[in-house]
Amino acid sequence: MLEVAGVSLAFGGVFANRDITLSVGDGELRGVIGPNGAGKSTLLNLISGHLRPQSGTIEFDGERVDSLPAHRRARLGIAIVFQGARLFPGMTVIENVMVGATAVTRSGALAAALRIPSQRREERAIREAARQSLERVGLTEWCDRDAAVLPLGQQRRMQVARALTAHPKLLLLDEPASGLRSAERDSLSALLEELKADGMSIMLIEHDVPMVMRVADRITVLDLGEVISEGTPDAVRADPRVIAAYLGAGAAHADH
Question: 25-52: per-residue pLDDT in tens?
């Protein structure tokens, strides 16, 4: 599904990502962990097209995409949920979720303004896709409520629903569990496992290492912009480089 080969990006001579190489298979849930400043969010932004690499290549579903803008990659099936809750104030939950389909819609601004039949049909289809996405994440009952009243856990689910409305093949998640309570994290983990079971490829950045260890098929560990380890959760947990850079000796022996 995804092939990242030798990708690098520096800001002011300091590498945020340096010679990153990884692959994500169809239906794989890939965890990405590492200390603050390791380059995790930069990597997702490079894959989604919000940043461009200075060297290296990115292939998605057999097509090279590293020179494509973010909206073109979204049309191909890459969706990203950014860190932190992002709501459109004054809009209902379903209206917030419908925004996620804008990258893959065909009608332009003029068609929307004129309310021509094709645009109205497309809007109905988008609304139905948004309802299905909300049902998928368990938010159907919040559909017509103001998005601003959602508790944080439901806000994160709404963000995932927004991304799902575009029917992505690859879902990029940047710390979706940040600030959530334990029960909300468990609920989010269950949702990610359901999406993976449905065949979706997922890349998950998360500081909650036990959560990543539970849900990920494989884990990539970054430190100072470079990959220092990659493998199954058990292999990564036991890697001396990961213990030294990030987990600490106690975490390596903890029961996750």
Answer: 999 999 999 988 899 999 999 999 999 9
pLDDT in tens, 114-154: 455 666 777 888 888 899 999 988 899 999 999 988 888 88
Q: Over 90-135, what HEC string results?
A: CCEHHHHHHHHHHHHCCCCHHHHHHCCHHHHHHHHHHHHHHHHHHH
82 within some domain: no
- Could you tell me the CATH number of the domain that includes residue 40? 3.40.50.300
Q: How far is residue 230's CA from residue 57's CA, in Å, rounded to a whole number? A: 19
Number of domains in the chain: 2
Cβ atoms of 192 and 165 closer than 8 Å: no
pTM of this structure? 0.86
Round to whole Å and give the CA distance between 242 and 221: 7
